[in-house]
């Protein structure tokens, strides 16, 4: 998206300052706030998902067994997606992308560069493997995870604030973000002191509201069988289409749209498909968070009232054989 004329923007008294530091030292170690935000988000997602799975009748902390596989594959997927959608950062004359000791290596994830949509793809594969391992129904886990992953994404966006990155178009709104003119992403030709849309904050607020919506919807029986996860995909991706459209950081452009806008559009479509397909396939109540025959022996999971926390707004349950 082209920038508006530079002369129409001016510095305003009220604004959001960028943090003075993006990291700190502990002995020889450099600790990045960005990494801390991501780690905090992962922990919050695990705790919330564990709480929701336990209420459905799963063993406590079975989510750890799933996360052991899902989190690493999510990080790998996030890096691969970023590299594929920013090839000019890593490939070309004078670059050696496969040397892990050189700046700009595809392996150097500590230099930054991960993509949420790649994390979703890789994490989904890892979650499916983890669910097969533990016996948890994949869609039950996905529904339990939905509010938690949106919370993690909200927390992770604060890392962009600490890194002074991924900001939006110039603006003169009172909540404009201060970015130093020496920042490599600061557009050439803009006056020093120009403010920018704090896209990190927009996404934090949108995702935070989404967490509340998902927790509310998750209390109804209808939003089982992956339908709550479908709402998550639609909610997050719809917001991402907007925020991504006003960002000015470099990105691959396909048919006039940034690559992440296309990924967000796909996310909305996939969410709609999941919602339609799962509604037709599973009109009843999930009998258990476990696949039949995989219930833990220490507890009679089938005898638990797994629907006690839900408000039934679905059609009458169909026989278990039909599920």
UniProtKB/TrEMBL annotation:
Pathway: Protein modification; lipoprotein biosynthesis (diacylglyceryl transfer). PROSITE patterns: LGT (PS01311). A 1,2-diacyl-sn-glycero-3-phospho-(1'-sn-glycerol) binds at residue 157. Residues 287-323 are annotated as: Disordered. It is an enzyme of class 2 (transferase). The keyword Iron-sulfur does not apply. Keywords: Cell membrane, Glycosyltransferase, Membrane, Transferase, Transmembrane, Transmembrane helix. Pfam families: LGT (PF01790). It is a multi-pass membrane protein. GO terms for molecular function: glycosyltransferase activity. The chain crosses the membrane at residues 31-49, 61-84, 104-129, 136-156, 200-218, 225-243, 255-277. InterPro entries: Lgt. Its EC number is 2.5.1.145. It is found in: Cell membrane. The keyword Nucleus does not apply. Catalyzes the transfer of the diacylglyceryl group from phosphatidylglycerol to the sulfhydryl group of the N-terminal cysteine of a prolipoprotein, the first step in the formation of mature lipoproteins. Belongs to the Lgt family. This is Phosphatidylglycerol--prolipoprotein diacylglyceryl transferase. It comes from Microbacterium commune.
């Amino acid at each position: 998206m082209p920038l508006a004329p530079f002369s129409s923007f001016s510095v305003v008294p009220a604004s959001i300052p960028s943090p003075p530091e993006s990291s700190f030292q502990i002995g020889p170690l450099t600790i990045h706030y960005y990494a801390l935000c991501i780690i905090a988000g992962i922990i919050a997602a695990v705790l919330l998902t564990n709480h929701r799975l336990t209420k459905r009748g799963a063993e406590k902390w079975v989510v750890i067994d799933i996360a052991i596989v899902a989190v690493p594959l999510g990080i790998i997927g996030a890096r691969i997606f970023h590299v594929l959608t920013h090839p000019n950062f890593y490939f070309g004359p004078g670059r050696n992308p496969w040397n892990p000791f050189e700046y700009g290596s595809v392996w150097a994830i500590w230099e930054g560069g991960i993509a949420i949509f790649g994390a979703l793809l890789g994490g989904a594969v890892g979650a499916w493997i983890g669910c097969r391992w533990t016996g948890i129904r994949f869609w039950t886990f996905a529904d339990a995870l939905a509010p938690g992953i949106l919370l993690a994404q909200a927390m992770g966006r604060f890392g962009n604030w600490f890194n002074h990155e991924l900001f939006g178009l110039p603006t003169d709104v009172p909540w404009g973000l201060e970015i130093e003119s020496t920042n490599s992403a600061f557009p050439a030709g803009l006056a020093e002191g120009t403010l920018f849309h704090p896209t990190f904050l927009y996404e934090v607020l949108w995702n935070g509201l989404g967490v509340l919506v998902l927790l509310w919807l998750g209390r109804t029986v209808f939003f089982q069988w992956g339908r709550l996860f479908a709402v998550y995909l639609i909610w997050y991706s719809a917001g991402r289409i907007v925020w991504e459209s006003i960002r000015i950081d470099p990105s691959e452009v396909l048919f006039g749209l940034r690559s992440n806008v296309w990924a967000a559009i796909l996310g909305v479509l996939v969410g709609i498909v999941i919602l339609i397909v799962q509604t037709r396939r599973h009109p009843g109540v999930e009998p258990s968070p476990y696949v039949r025959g995989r219930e833990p022996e220490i507890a009679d999971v089938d005898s638990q009232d797994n629907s006690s926390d839900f408000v039934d707004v679905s059609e009458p349950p169909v026989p278990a054989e039909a599920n």
